[in-house]
Design brief:
Length: 405
């Protein structure tokens, strides 16, 4: 079984906007730089009359410049390699990632020159924002140019003399243009599917533990929904809500998020706010039903949950399914504060929680009845993800060794 295809329930442009906003929560300065860099890339490519299908990919690459610098882990491969691996394995523009490394592969594909176009736009953006002076920035670029094409330099010169570029970058004009352009970009069905992988993998930049939990929760919730005969479109919405339900944790300090000990009352009150932050990140970018499923995953049937102490009358079956899946995922997986629990102990906790009125008994019973099938599929899908990470780790070592030679 493959993970569900959910492009029918969330437009790709909305997923892109969520990714941008999520990264902005991690590093707002880098995200603002990337959008300005993307705007200059867009302007240069338009002047050079590069085909629209190529421009969209280059603008996309610019938006995720140095995104790899935020990845956790003990590797010291450098942000460029990490960015390349992220774009190659998780983004909708896998085939274009090669141009970031200026390697022989991109030379053969005819994309090699675009790597230098991106490099020129990136450095000019950096010089311009540093000096806030067009002439100084262009002079620095000429002094430090690395074999940039004459056409690229000519078009950059034309751009800065025919537009008020500094004003456009200091206003919101650049952001409006980039967002509007990406929203009109046509992605293939396969590329659209990759947006979900990209969005899920963004968690790893902040917390690998949160990434694993969100993916596991989404799969379990989807499988329970299927066994409860929930309509296909709603199953997909539940799955997407599962992937996104903890997005707001990017606003929670890591020392609280991954604390190995029990949280203090103050820390717990801060942690609880992640559901509100999730709702803010998803607002106007996803279907209302998906947002509410994600937002309400800590509510309880007896009204003792948070953030709004809703009871069973206010909670839909879709929301109740994610609540149960969230608990299962938290119990059966290893966390910073606990080891993984056995399925027997997990079921005992679910029964206790259902009897106390916290969880929906029917959802818990469905999981218990179909636990073997659900966990078999879940383990298979999670192991597929592990295999991808094994491939990434091997390629990282190859790239790291080649860069050192």
């Amino acid at each position: 079984m493959r993970e569900p295809r959910c492009t029918s329930v969330v437009p790709s442009k909305n997923l892109w906007e969520i990714a941008i906003e999520f990264l902005g929560k991690i590093d707002i300065k880098l995200m603002e730089f990337n959008l300005k860099y993307a705007y200059i890339t867009y302007c240069i490519c338009r002047l050079e009359k590069i085909p629209k299908r190529i421009i969209s990919k280059l603008v996309f690459l610019s938006c995720f410049n140095e995104v790899g610098k935020h990845y956790e882990g003990e590797n010291d491969s450098g942000s460029q390699i990490e960015t390349y691996l992220f774009l190659k394995y998780f983004s909708p523009i896998k085939k274009f990632a090669d141009i970031l490394l200026h390697d022989e592969k991109s030379k053969k594909s005819g994309m090699y020159a675009f790597g230098y176009t991106l490099d020129m736009c990136k450095h000019f953006t950096s010089y311009l924002l540093e000096s806030n002076d067009i002439d100084i920035a262009y002079k620095k670029l000429e002094e430090n140019k690395k074999g940039y094409a004459y056409l690229d330099l000519f078009m950059l010169n034309r751009l800065i003399h025919k537009t008020d570029l500094l004003y456009e970058l200091n206003s919101m004009h650049y952001k409006t243009v980039v967002y509007k352009y990406i929203s009109k970009t046509i992605f293939s069905s396969k590329e659209k599917d990759s947006f979900f992988s990209m969005l899920a993998s963004l968690f790893e930049m902040y917390s690998a533990q949160t990434l694993y939990h969100s993916k596991l929760t989404a799969i379990i919730a989807y499988m329970i929904a299927k066994h409860m005969k929930v309509k296909s479109i709603r199953c997909k919405k539940i799955y997407v809500a599962g992937l996104c339900h903890d997005l707001g944790k990017v606003c929670i300090p890591l020392k609280i998020l991954e604390k190995p000990d029990k949280l203090s009352d103050r820390e717990y009150s801060i942690m609880k706010r992640h559901v509100e932050f999730t709702k803010l990140i998803l607002k106007n970018k996803m279907d209302y039903d998906i947002i509410e499923i994600a937002y309400r995953h800590h509510e309880k049937m007896n009204g003792t949950g948070y953030p709004n102490q809703l009871d069973k009358i206010s909670l839909t079956i879709d929301q109740r399914i994610l609540q149960v899946a969230d608990v299962i995922s938290a119990l059966i997986a290893k966390r910073s504060y606990k080891e993984a629990w056995s399925i027997e102990r997990t079921i005992a906790i679910l029964d206790e929680s259902a009897n106390e009125g916290n969880l929906d008994k029917a959802v818990v019973e469905c999981f218990k009845k179909n636990q073997k099938k659900i966990l078999k599929t879940t383990n298979m899908l999670m192991s597929q993800a592990d295999k991808v990470y094994d491939i990434i780790n091997k390629e990282r070592e190859v790239l790291k060794n080649s860069s050192n030679n």
